[in-house]
Amino acid sequence: MRALQTAATGMMAQELNVQVISNNIANVRTTGYKRQTVHFQDLLYENFRRAGSATSDQNTMVPAGTFIGSGVKTTSTGRIMSQGNLSSTEKQYDVAIRGEGLFKIRMPDGRTTYSRDGSFDLDAQGQLVTRDGYTVEPGITVPNNATSVSINAQGTVEVQLPGQTAPQTLGQLQLTRFVNKVGLESIGDNLFVETAASGPAIDGVGGGEGFGSLQQNYLEEGNVQAVTELTTLIAAQRAYEMNSKVITAADQMMSATTSMFRG
After folding, report:
1. Which domain holds residue 15?
2. Which residues does the UniProt record annotate as the domain Flagellar basal body rod protein N-terminal (predicted)?
């Protein structure tokens, strides 16, 4: 019976939906996390009677056809790249982006990745790195005798050194944006990589045209709304249950038909 296969596609789709929701909820406290959402499309239809087909030689036609679909499929699990709330951390190397842009991160193998997670620190050489030790572009090294570090809205890093009245500029943090940021590929560790769908990287700095500004001593929270996710989870669960009811009903109908033949 066709209904069994159709309902099965619905159950598989909702199972994937629940997996995505569970990942969003698991990352509700992940810095810079961008929630995912599932998009669905209906599958192919079988036409038993096409709309507009002729019913006589006098040009009469069928006003509405007979089409039976074969279920649903998942087309994408896109990310919602909206701004998350900024929370104060009081750590001088924590930096949040308010607006567009991603930090540019250089990996140990030379690859370039991108992130909204601005929880930075210093390595043993005084270089600004991520919590995993990856270099934050353009590669800024803070002297070990610096008494204070400031990062302004444009990303300019300045330090105050002993015996000097004026601060010393060390460099400027780079930001990157993409024409289609939803097309970035997530590789874990709060990192994204460029893809053909995202388009090429557009480099800039904080405050530049099309780029956001930076805020020191703050981090961007994930944009997951717990209430929204729980509501979506309940809807997915109910949809799964309804599809399972269809399978049960189809099985009962087939059982009744089989019983007739046995009788």
Report:
1. 2-81+224-262
2. 4-34
Same domain assignment for residues 110 and 214: yes
Residues 107 and 203 in one domain: yes
pLDDT single digits (tens) 81-127: 999 999 999 999 999 999 999 999 999 999 999 999 999 999 999 99
194 and 166 within one domain: yes
**Residues 92 and 210 placed together within one structural domain of the fold:** yes
Q: How many domains does the chain have?
A: 2
Q: Which pTM value belongs to this model?
A: 0.85
Cα(92)–Cα(263) distance, integer angstroms: 82
CA distances from 194 to 96, 176, 230, 252 (A): 21, 11, 31, 51
At residue 240, the 3 state secondary structure works out as helix
- DSSP conformation class of 209: T
Contact 175, 212 (CB under 8 A): yes
Q: SS3 for 15? A: helix
25 neighbors 232 (Cβ within 8 angstroms)? no
Q: How far is CA 47 from CA 40, 72, 253, in A?
A: 22, 17, 24
- Give the Cα separation of 95 and 116 in Å (integer): 9
- Same domain (yes/no): 52, 165: no
Query: In angstroms, how far apart are the furthest CA atoms of the chain?
Result: 103
Q: How far is CA 238 from CA 18, 133, 243, in A?
A: 11, 44, 9
Do the beta carbons of residue 14 and residue 239 sit within 8 Å? Answer: yes
Same domain, 35 and 103: no
